[in-house]
Design a protein that fits this description.
By secondary structure, the chain is of the alpha+beta class. It is built from three helices and five strands, in the order ββαβαββα. The protein binds FE2/S2 (inorganic) cluster (FES).
Length: about 140
Amino acid sequence: MGGKNPFMKSDDPPPPQRPYTLRVIDEGGHEHNIAVDPDKVPYSRNGRPGSILDIALAHGVELDHACGGVCACATCHIIVRSGLEGCNEPTDEEEDQLDDAYGLTAVSRLACQCVPTGQCDVVVEIPNWNRNLARESDH
Ligand code: FES
């Protein structure tokens, strides 16, 4: 599943203009360093074009995305450890969904909505409680 949420009022943010490195620390603590090429955005059909979800899934990094990346859940909750200043501003819709995220922090984002601009490298962490909650709700 994927695509654009028809109820989203905001347009997609501009894709990155410069190459940058996205480091994703997964639930097991493994680091994935991804060289993002602006010419290849969007990498997949998940989340906003150029979003962290889009990039991570296309590079084999598992990241839960129960709603398919249309800002209708909070399973793609990530914590931006550095480079938040190089990401688009969250929309009201994203903040509403984040309100339901377990373990919300001041630097939490939804991976399907967070689109780095390329002005700096970005480091994100997938909280391990995300996976546990998503798996428990499958039963
Ligand atoms: Fe549902 Fe991101 S995948 S809000």
